[in-house]
Structures are given as structure tokens and as C-alpha cells.
Specification:
- By secondary structure, the protein is an alpha+beta fold.
- It folds into two domains: 2-51 and 281-304, no CATH class; 60-259, B-lactam Antibiotic, Isopenicillin N Synthase, Chain (Jelly Rolls).
- It has helices at residues 2-23, 31-36, 38-41, 43-51, 70-74, 76-85, 102-105, 122-127, 129-136, 229-241, 258-279, 281-304; strands at 60-61, 110-116, 141-149, 154-158, 165-173, 180-184, 187-190, 196-199, 205-209, 215-223.
């Protein structure tokens, strides 16, 4: 009876957190997609992060609420110079070792990592030391990169998986046009050189560059401010010990986190699955649901032991 009770509690927590994620905000992903989305697997964690957050439940925030980020905007031209100098280094992952952004690379999106939830990347320290020094002086900046959105690129609707951070964008080289924008929960923002915005990346969002100019920004994850110190410590611990496992390298001297070390094998399975779907859709969906059942079984297994 106790074992069954634990199993019911675990299933109920995931069901409630799935529904919480699905109905959060004005815009939603299709229920079938949300069920298998990476944001669903972290949904119980995200309920905690947003439930105890100091920030209001809305897509965009006033940059003035984050005064510690002012040095970045004050030095945007210094940061831009370093981004332009290493523009050839802003690129897609070459070895299927960036699980978080893998689908974006197919649409032309590119990145150069500066830091990821722990130390700065050695490659970034060598190639853009001024930007790295600025970032290291601001403890709330947990991850940072330069990102490009080329002319004609479109990033489809998605939720980012982790609500323990909020997203900061600083325009460096932009079209300065309303035709290059990001839309978060149906609210639109267009990048401008030297201007910054902060938004909640766990709302459904998408981006498009309909201009003939590439957009380059400084892209940062900022630790979400929590209502109480104990909740802030949990957020900090989770970022440092769990999110750090998703570290992806710029080159061979940078660290590759555990998640991305195993991602290449998962990508191979995914690639095979796409081929199977084209050959036999019934077998594909049978295998997909069987794999999902195995995952749920592994989650519930400790309750029966």
C-alpha cells in the first residue's frame, strides 16, 4: 500500500507540473509536443522556481530590476568589438555536442560560449578577455554567449527547459529594425544596438530575422531572484550541479558536460528514428511510446524497491 501511494504521488506531481507548464502563459505548444518536451521533464523543478520567484509571472521584465547588469550595457561597444573580432568563431556545434540548441543550428543560428554555470570557457578567456572579465564581475550571470541570427532565419516556437534563470539580451550588431524580433508569450521585442531586454524564457517564444543583415547579441542566463534565501540557495545549487552538465565547448580545450557527452548517442537514436518514421509510421510510434513507458517505469522503480 505504501509503495502504491508513493507511485501515485510521483505520477500526480508530474501530471500537475505538466498541466502547470502547458497552461502557463497565453500561448501554448500542442499538448502532444509539450508532453515530450524537455521543459516537461524539468516541470516539477520549474514549479518551485516560478512559485518562489521574486519576479512577477509575466514574459518581459524591466532591465532596471537588474542593476548589477548595468556594466554590460555601459560597455556594450567594448563587448561588440570583441564579438566582431571573433565572428568566424561564432558557429554551430561541429560534433553533435550541444543538446540544448541542436535544433537551432539547422536554421542557421550560431553561438560562441563565454561561460556556462561554472567557470568561463578557456577559449573565451583567450579570445575575448574584456567581455569575460565583465561577466565574471557579475555573480548573477550564470551562462553567457555571443549568438548570431542570420538574415532570413526563423526559430520556431519553444520553451526553454529551466526556470531557475531569466534571459538577458544585449544588442551588439543588429539590423535596428522591427523586422528582426523575438516574441515571448505574444509580446514582441526588436533588438537595437546597445539596448537590452530581460525575459522569461520558459514562456513560449520564437524569433525571426526578416532583414538582410545578421543579428549579433550578447545572450546571458541570469539567476532568477527568489523570495527567500533558502530558495535562492536551492536555485544556485541546482544550476551549479545540474545545469553545468549541459556545458558545450567552442573548441577542444573547453569542457564538455556529461549531458552533451551522451547526447551524440541520443542523437544517433533520434536520426535512426526519423528514418524509421519515414519507412513505417506504426512501428515508429509503437517504439516511441514503448520508450516513454520505459522512462516512466525507471522513474517509478525506486518506489517499488
Amino acid at each position: 500500500m505504501i509503495v502504491l501511494m508513493y507511485a501515485v504521488i510521483i505520477v500526480a506531481v508530474f501530471l500537475v507540473s505538466f498541466l502547470y507548464t502547458y497552461y502557463r502563459g497565453k500561448e501554448r505548444l500542442k499538448a502532444s509536443r509539450q508532453l515530450f518536451d524537455h521543459s516537461t521533464f524539468l516541470a516539477p523543478v520549474n514549479m518551485f522556481m516560478t512559485g518562489f520567484s521574486k519576479l512577477p509571472n509575466q514574459p518581459f521584465f524591466d532591465v532596471a530590476q537588474f542593476p548589477e547588469l548595468k556594466p554590460l550595457q555601459d560597455n556594450w561597444q567594448v563587448i561588440r568589438e570583441e564579438a566582431i573580432q571573433l565572428q568566424n568563431q561564432i558557429k554551430a556545434a561541429e560534433k553533435n555536442n550541444d543538446a540544448g540548441f541542436n535544433t537551432f543550428f539547422k536554421r542557421g543560428w550560431k553561438r560562441f560560449y563565454l561561460k556556462w554555470y561554472q567557470a568561463s570557457h578557456p577559449s573565451a578567456q583567450q579570445l575575448c578577455p574584456k567581455t569575460v572579465a565583465l561577466l565574471e564581475s557579475i555573480p548573477s550571470v550564470k551562462a553567457a554567449m555571443f549568438t548570431e541570427l542570420p538574415s532570413g532565419s526563423y526559430l520556431g516556437k519553444h520553451r526553454d527547459p529551466y526556470a531557475g534563470s531569466v534571459r538577458y539580451h544585449l544588442g551588439l550588431v543588429t539590423p535596428n529594425s522591427d523586422d528582426c524580433f523575438i516574441e515571448v508569450d505574444q509580446e514582441r521585442y526588436s533588438w537595437r544596438d546597445g539596448e537590452a531586454t530581460v525575459f522569461d524564457e520558459t514562456f513560449v517564444h520564437w524569433a525571426e530575422n526578416k532583414t538582410d543583415q545578421t543579428r549579433i547579441i550578447l545572450f546571458c542566463d541570469i539567476e532568477r531572484p527568489m523570495k527567500w534565501g533558502w530558495a535562492q540557495k536551492i536555485n544556485h545549487w541546482f544550476g551549479r550541479n545540474v545545469m553545468s552538465a549541459a556545458s558545450s565547448p567552442n573548441d577542444d580545450q573547453d569542457k564538455t558536460g556529461f549531458i552533451n557527452r551522451i547526447f551524440k548517442y541520443g542523437y544517433a537514436v533520434h536520426h535512426y528514428g526519423r528514418g524509421l518514421k519515414q519507412r513505417n509510421r506504426k512501428v515508429y510510434y509503437l517504439a516511441k511510446w514503448l520508450m516513454f513507458a520505459i522512462i516512466i517505469g525507471l522513474i517509478l522503480l525506486p518506489s517499488f524497491l
